[in-house]
Amino acid sequence: MSQTNSPLPRQVADTYVDELIALDPITGTFLGVQESSSRLPDTSPAGTEALARLERATLARLDEAERQPGADSDIERRCARLLRERLSASLAVHEADESLRSVSNLSSVAHAVRQVFTVTPTATEDDWAAVVERLRAVPAALEGYRQSLELGLDRKLYAGPRATATFVGQLGEWADTGDGKGWFEQFAASGPEALRAGLDEAAGSATVAVLALRDWMRDVYAPAIEGAPDVVGRERYARWVRYFNGTDLDLDEAYAYGWSEYHRLLGEMKTEAEKILPGAATPWVALAHLDEQGTHIEGVDEVRSWLQSVMDEAIEKLDGTHFDLAERVRRVESRIAPPGSAAAPYYTPPSDDFTRPGITWLPTMGQTRFPVYDLVSTWYHEGVPGHHLQLAQWKHIAENLSRYQASVGMVSANAEGWALYAERLMDELGFLTDPERRLGYLDAQMMRAARVIIDIGMHLELTIPDDSPFRPGERWTPALAQEFFGAHSSRPADFVESELTRYLSMPGQAIGYKLGERAWLLGRERARERRGAGFDLKSWHMAALSQGSLGLDDLVEELSRL
After folding, report:
1. Which tens digits make up the pLDDT trace of 179-205?
2. Among 120, 188, 290, 304, which residue's beta carbon has the most beta carbons within 10 A?
3. At what angle are helices 512-531 and 537-545 packed, to 10 degrees?
4. How far, in Å, CA of 188 to CA of 196, rounded?
5. Cβ-contact 183, 177 below 8 angstroms
6. Terminal C-alpha separation, the chain
7. Which one, of 379, 377, 243, lies nearest residue 304 by Cα?
């Protein structure tokens, strides 16, 4: 092939997306590919190795693409930079056999298999016919996952006991949601009567497969890993930090930064708490007061509608002043998360063609009464101007980026850092003048600082500093981390427990919020210094949101140029 016909990095990246979708129809569904709706991926060790082969082949093609004329343009260079970093980080995780001990309360093969049904099209009878086929594929997908974990046992690669116990409980909830039906059966119940027999049979088989996995995890896997550590140690932790954050982080510096933010935020929280409950011993006493006496929304339907109004208001006030939003980016929906979800709210981006909008999800955890103080900044984070504006903008300008940059190339710390930056931006713009809402925002910021401290601290088993008001000089353990988190958060005990399990089973992911925010703020400040009086925040926001994802090693440099 001549040089003039050789693909450039963006073409290589988009070819990778096409080939990835062929292997992973879950990714296809999240991207809005209709043909993916009837299938699930091969989740066995062979399927994981097929993904790795694709990554290696793509890196080889990228080597050639970067030698082509035009590959040094900004748009090609950013795409190549992201693709190489992401595939290399993923391969490092694969080659360490991390997939053979991937057990989590939030992110595992089983969670992906269930969650994909929440975004699978169901508008027509043909859509539901594809759902029947996908339901029939659930047993094989869960069996492939079991085979991966079984191979991990053979190689003495163990997941953490705490995450395993939690996951067993979740599988039990998925098998029986409280009315004698499993989650898949409940999902299938809303399908058309013309397909009722097939839906019921396939959903019933899926529930049987969930129970089989639950029983194996409980009776075989959990006893086999008893006594294994829940923490991963410095080597594994550094590998996961690269995967989730796109950086080879100075872990000790990041740990110290977490503590510096802790002390700064604690001072601000005390100021706001005094306005709410004068003389409160700690800010969390004031927050507990708000749990009982503060502003609340009553009812599940009511809170969903109210959260929608929070995002609608943000769009109306920010569009044209601090952002320029395309009409389809302005559409975002608030929904209630399905039973058996983790405790934290989350967001799913729109399909590539925007026929499925961006969606924020609230797990109710059985509650029907919702304090306002801890929801407002959270919905600025999950919805507008947080995850939704960034991820939907990537979709909107995908043709100017690449399909890869706008979708599967996302770096967690880039996206979570933007969303935390978005919370701070709303505070800077004066949206959080009410003491309840501002204390809730600071509490959410403190939670992210605490994540840096305890995620790094417990996985590396570091010492708590002498100037800490909490157990100075002691060495971090998961038990101490849970105690610290509970003492420095307004969240209920079940949320705190769920969060700690998440940190233990997704090492290095939770630190990306605060460290990503630091990168976004530093990039903005350097761009402001570079442009001086000519710096325009709205223009910078749109340029920043239009460059696609980057790892933290690259993000500050690129933001500074804008």
Report:
1. 889 999 999 999 999 999 999 999 999
2. 188
3. 130
4. 8
5. yes
6. 36
7. 379
